[in-house]
Design a protein that fits this description.
The protein is built from 2 helices and 2 strands; from the N terminus they run ββαα. The longest helix is centred in the middle third of the chain and has 27 residues. The chain is elongated, with a radius of gyration of 16 Å. Helix 1 packs antiparallel against helix 2. By secondary structure, the chain is mainly alpha-helical. Strand 1 and strand 2 form a beta hairpin.
Length: 75
């Protein structure tokens, strides 16, 4: 049984070529953005305005690795 191709390799990255590829991206990106914004709002509310950058690497890095793993598997 062959895997479905949801992503095509373009140069050093992967681009979605199927609606499921776009769905995977949306399912990972939207909660990640919400978590980053919520984290920044919490830090701002606690008075840590200089640490607003902190939620970005905490939530973005695992999301990026997850999407790259899924894209590689379904390419």
């Amino acid at each position: 049984m062959q895997r479905e191709v949801w992503f095509e390799k373009v140069a050093w990255s992967y681009m979605p070529c199927h609606w499921k590829g776009f769905g995977v991206l949306a399912a990972v990106i939207l909660p990640t953005l919400a978590a980053i914004w919520a984290g920044q709002a919490v830090l701002d509310g606690m008075g840590y305005r200089t640490a607003d950058w902190l939620p970005f690497p905490i939530f973005f890095t695992p999301a990026l690795l997850l999407v790259l793993g899924i894209a590689k598997r379904h390419s």
